[in-house]
Amino acid sequence: MIIKLSLKKIRRLVFIIAFLLIAGFVGYRIGVSRSPNSRPVQGTDLSLFWLVWRRLENKYFNQKALKPKKMIEGAISGMVTSLGDPYTVFLPPADNKINKEDLTGEFGGVGIQLGYKNHTLAVISPLKKTPAEEAGVQAGDLILKIKDEGKGIDQSTEGISLPEAVKLIRGKEETKVILTLAREGVGRPIDASITRRRIAIPALETRWIERNGKRFAYIHLFQFSERMDKEWNEWAKEMVKSEKNGDGLDGLVLDLRNNPGGYLQGAVFVAGEFLPSGKTVVWQETYNGKRSKFIVDRSGRLLDIPLVVLINEGSASAAEILAGALRDHQRAKIIGLKSFGKGTIQEPEELPGKAGLHITIARWLLPNGESINKEGIKPDVEVKEATRAAKIDKDLILEKGIDILINF
User: What is the CATH number of the domain that holds 178?
Assistant: First the structure.
């Protein structure tokens, strides 16, 4: 009995020390970002936290459910959730691993990029050639419920975090998940039954379009992922070569529709192909009003080619930054529908034990000082016919972009 009690105390002490280290680490990072004298943990009475901990440990009926590591992660998650910002999240090790998989461009699931509309879980965009797109899921759909009979899940998404939603929607390949969706212009909820499979996201897709004796290059950027730079460089070299050989390049269509963003540096890199060196791509504004800017720091290869950019409700974050920068510098005409409106900045941090913490540390401002958060990018030419509810065979947004290039 004495030995068991001692081990229990030792285990509890280890986890308490681990918790304090994590809390101290988080507090230190926040403190440094605010002011040298700001330490949220110092002077805070944590006695209530430990009182509840001891009560549970001493009185809770199901002692097997008392798992210190899980309880600590729950406490941290609760602290982060209390901020009311759905993009500031604590990621336990398993969730942190899933998040990293998204930006490598390959993972298992249904192929949806998630975000929030007025604190309701929403589809930023269904990824191209994925089960979600094939099942009819559309950018801007609100996800009201997630159902998976195989996992015994039938859960409302009210108050759900992004990591939790991702965990529920993903699952084994060839299994089904049902998403109950609310869609603008549709009177009743829609149930989308989706069969999961392995998702591999290409960085981009290119082709040539010929109209009225003119030849236009078309490039669709699906996401600013790790693999984008290499694929973009290969494509840009072909464009330069085509120009030098006199093969004909009368304009370029940059398609950012259903691009949910990704790495900011990817957007800055692409902007650098079209804007002169020294031009501002985006401003970063912190909580105290301090601003810093990201500029073009190289000589682009496509500075003089006529350009149109296509956007829709699924264009978000880094995609909005790129479109806004090209618009503000009058380098391109923006065609399509108003974008998603994701304009805050999350700083990812690695925590002990392979956990992660994403903190909203600032917001993005376009070169003209405009905030895109919750506002989105308004196109120069809105194509109203291309709504989510419209059932058309012709790509009206693309056709409008080509018309503009023909008459450039």
Answer: 2.30.42.10
User: Do residue 227 and residue 325 come from a single domain?
Assistant: yes
Question: Nearest-CA neighbor of 93 among 79, 110, 76, 81?
Answer: 76
245 with 390, same domain: the answer is yes
If you search the block for the tokens 């939603």, which residue do you land on?
Answer: 165
**Catalytic residue selected from 317, 333, 339, 400:** 317
Q: Is 250 a catalytic residue?
A: no
Asked if 175 and 238 sit in the same domain, the reply is no
Same domain, 186 and 288: no
pLDDT by residue (tens digit) across 38-74?
445 555 678 888 999 999 999 899 998 899 988 988 8
| pLDDT tens-digit map of 255-311 | 999 898 888 899 999 999 999 999 999 999 998 889 999 999 998 999 999 999 999
Q: Are 309 and 323 in contact (CB under 8 A)?
A: yes
Decide if 317 is catalytic: yes
Does residue 100 lie within any of the structural domains? Answer: no
Of 293, 370, 368, which Cα lies nearest the Cα of 339? Answer: 370
Catalytic-role residue among 279, 333, 342, 400? 342
Query: Residue 61 sits in which domain range?
Result: 2-82
Phi, psi of 24 (to 5 degrees): -65, -40
The torsion angles phi and psi of 307, rounded to 5 degrees, stand at -140, 135
Active-site option among 125, 328, 333, 339: 328
Instruction: Identify the three-state secondary structure at position 47.
Output: helix
